[in-house]
Amino acid sequence: MATEPRPIDPAKVKAGGERIFGYLKGMGVSAMIYLGDKLGLYQALHGAGPVTSEELAKKTGLHERWIREWIRGQAAAGIIDYQGDERFELSPEIGMFLADSNSPKLAVGIFSDLPQRMAVVERLPQAFKTGIGLNYDARGPEGARGIERVFGNWYRFTLVSQVLPKLDGVVSKLQAGAKAADIGCGSGVALVEMAKAFPQSAFHGYDISQHALARAEENKVQAGVKNLTFHDAKVDGLSTDASFDLITTFDCIHDMTHPFEMISVIRKAIKPDGTWFIADVKSLPTFEENLEKNPMTTLLYAFSVMGCMSSALSESGGAGLGTLGFNEAVARQATAGAGFTRFVRHDFENPLNAYYEVRL
């Protein structure tokens, strides 16, 4: 028997409309952040004090009328402070996220490949039909550069100075001369920083992204490091001869088509006294827990469909873990199943990532 349709609640209609158009507003503001970064507007505003659109246009060599519309919108969004009398200022606090190249909190890079992300969205209906997603090279070279910009400052200012010293015995091994690998190395920034800090050690980076590997080679040459080698993991995979003192996986296990097979390979590649250091997205075991306690859930599911899960399903039979799929419970079970016996969680005050030190 058909049920009577529920009466429309006007209050819910109003709230629903505000929510939907609120997300549309977010899309528009994201596009404006992309432009502000692309055109160097945030860099020009950083530390400049209150300026008018005319002054900013003169400083950047851009057209004032376009600057005026952009900067008024940024003020309306609460990103740039309006000081009255058509003067605008980028606060040092917001500048840490959008302009300061020396800030560990710099996050503007996540907007830098926005056009490529949107282009990928146009191809996703086919993925929904076939079940087969797109790997990260679908976003082109800018995709690799975008990921580099998202994580680069954390590697530069935190990894060597704050993180590695917290891992049991790792720094002393690297100082003496160790063999280390970064799986899913991307553009190689983490490895470059470690190779510079520990010239006695040999570092190896593995990835399947051709765009990321090309960028990694550029970063290697620019840094002038000689103790670093990059490998195309599709043709030159990780050696399973128990020769590595340190293996790192930064934000990549959940992206892999066959993550659990990779964990087994890592188990065979690492020395009996070696360390595997994992960084992966901070999430909770169930959808309900994430819905209730994880404020990033909405964004992370969107990232998953556009990138992480798509990559994890880019081959037939892919695991499809997705952005929230490698939570601590899964990580503990998977590492134990591969033969690792020690699992320590670290807190490095990163709102997006959880960190695990894993040993045999």
Would you give an account of this structure?
The chain has 2 domains: 10-104, Winged helix-like DNA-binding domain superfamily/Winged helix DNA-binding domain (Arc Repressor Mutant, subunit A, Orthogonal Bundle), CATH 1.10.10; 114-359, Rossmann fold (3-Layer(aba) Sandwich). 49% of the residues lie in helices and 15% in strands. The protein has 14 helices and 9 strands. The strands form 2 sheets. Strands 5-4-3-6-7-9-8 form a 7-stranded mixed beta sheet, with helices on both faces. A two-stranded antiparallel ribbon has the order 1-2. Helix 3 (53-60) packs across helix 4 (64-76) and helix 7 (140-163) runs parallel beside helix 9 (189-197). It is globular.
Pick out its properties.
Arc Repressor Mutant, subunit A; alpha/beta; 9 strands; 2 domains; 360 residues; Rossmann fold; two-stranded antiparallel sheet; 7-stranded mixed beta sheet
SSE blueprint:
Elements lengths: L9 H29 L2 H5 L7 H8 L3 H13 L4 E4 L2 E3 L2 H7 L15 H17 L9 H24 L6 H7 L2 E5 L5 H9 L4 E6 L2 H14 L4 E5 L11 E7 L8 H11 E12 L5 H7 L3 H16 L15 H10 L4 E5 L6 E7 L1
Parallel strand pairs: 3-4, 3-6, 4-5, 6-7
Antiparallel strand pairs: 1-2, 7-9, 8-9
Helix pairs in contact: 3-4, 6-13, 7-9
